[in-house]
Specification:
alpha+beta, Rossmann fold, Dna Ligase, domain 1, D-amino Acid Aminotransferase, Chain A, domain 1, nine-stranded antiparallel sheet, five-stranded parallel sheet, 29% helix, globular, binds adenosine-5'-diphosphate, binds magnesium ion
Length: 384
């Protein structure tokens, strides 16, 4: 069996590594100029060239049995064309919905799940009316597309913040913004005074079987995931039950095949969906060493229509992201971070400040022990 993945980053690498164990072959579809360092040695790479047809891509990929994706920002029209030759998971229509925050939140609402109230504004539509429509400040404004790691977002809590957004909007409309803006539309959503952020990750296979992982807590710094803690501490039974319901409702409603990640805010017994990711997710990396079956293996099993693996977790688990510290071509793994109970996952990428270049998973018997171990990894990484 052969699976092809659109994209050549670390998620592709970890998907391929888990599939190789089951005797599955891989090939990868790369955009022109895309780095393929992460998947070096793991399968054929096809670089998309000008005028190449979907059939030519499918053939060059080695006529795969299924095609999947590792990123959300993918060419949906191309996914649809490839679907003429073999199954493509998740379905391009679902990816299209999730690619745009307005469509994504509409899907969440239509699935009967909670999400923060929002209004979409386009071009020069007034922000003040939108803020009023959702009950006043504070709000978060986000571009409907081209947002990641906190980019293209404005937290608005005062008249000064409104003015700052309007200044940025002028630059965006003139095409002079430092960040990419494919379209001029935003969602204005209520800022939630959440207690914690959790991820709910689940998988559904072609047959419709569903599994889900216990929710983990996500700690972000500067808009980037810093670490995950599993199980998320202090979760009430109400939240746990809601989490299971949310993931299975979304998987079933969309007829989803593969791994889906749902980022949520917890506020008392309210579980509020923030955003969805139609792929394996950074907040599920702990599962490589903390669960019977990793999210990567379950994604491969799901799209290969194999029975999904047990998602049982072992005690307490955590993940610390290794973010690049300097600009450097050095891709040598920091093996000093490998300890009896530290599991290093190194992506082989060149380092840039803030870039995700690896992670370390840890296991523990208690939350206190886990916190100590994560702190130890953090210090070792910063000192290395
Ligand atoms: N409505 C909100 N209320 C409070 N905090 C928010 C809200 N939306 C986003 N945030 C904060 O900003 C972070 C990034 O926002 P998110 O929508 O997840 O975008 P990204 O695509 O950058 O991950 C969230 O993890 C959360 O900490
Ligand atoms: Mg997010």
């Amino acid at each position: 069996m052969r699976i092809s993945i659109i994209g050549c980053g670390q998620l592709s690498r970890m998907l391929a590594l888990s599939g190789w164990n089951m005797g599955i072959d891989f090939s990868f579809l790369a955009d022109k100029g895309e780095s393929t360092a992460c998947i070096s040695g793991l399968g054929d790479v096809v670089i998309i060239t000008e005028g190449m047809s979907a059939l030519e891509m499918y053939q060059a990929l080695g006529r795969p049995d299924a095609i999947t994706i590792e990123r959300e920002a993918v060419d949906v029209a191309l996914m649809k064309e490839l679907k003429n030759f073999c199954p493509v998971f998740p379905d391009p229509d679902i990816v299209w919905k999730i690619q745009n925050r307005h469509r994504e939140k509409t899907l969440v609402k239509e699935s009967g799940l909670e999400t923060s109230p929002w209004v979409r504004i386009q071009d020069e539509e007034p922000l003040a009316e939108a803020i009023e429509a959702i009950g006043g400040l504070p709000v978060v404004v986000k571009s409907t597309e081209d947002g990641y790691d906190g980019h293209n977002q404005w937290v608005i809590d005062s008249a000064d913040h409104i003015a700052a957004f309007e200044d940025d909007r002028k630059l965006i409309l003139k095409g002079e913004s430092q960040h990419k803006h494919a379209q001029f539309e935003w969602i204005v959503e209520k800022k939630i005074p959440f207690e914690r952020e959790i991820s709910v990750i689940g998988a559904r296979n072609v047959d419709g079987s569903i599994v889900s992982y216990i929710p983990g807590e996500n700690v972000h710094k500067g808009g980037i995931l810093h670490s995950s803690i599993v199980p998320a501490p202090h979760l009430s039974d109400v939240i746990k039950t809601k989490a299971e319901h949310y993931i299975s409702a979304l998987l079933k409603k969309t007829g989803y095949v593969g791994v889906l990640a749902v980022e949520c805010f917890v506020l008392g017994d309210e579980l509020i969906v923030n955003e969805l990711a139609p792929r394996v997710h950074n907040s599920g990396h702990w599962s490589m060493n903390g669960a019977d079956t990793s999210q990567f293996e379950n994604h491969v099993r799901a799209i290969a229509n194999l029975p999904l693996g047990s998602t049982r977790h072992c005690g307490v688990a955590g993940m610390y992201n290794l973010l690049g510290k300097t600009l450097s071509d050095n891709t040598a793994p920091p093996t000093a971070l490998v300890k009896p109970e530290h599991f290093l996952h190194w992506y082989g990428k060149t380092s840039r400040p803030g870039r995700k270049i690896g992670h370390v998973n840890v296991r523990a018997d208690s939350q206190e022990e886990l916190a100590e171990k994560l702190e130890c990894v953090r210090k070792q990484w910063l000192d290395s």
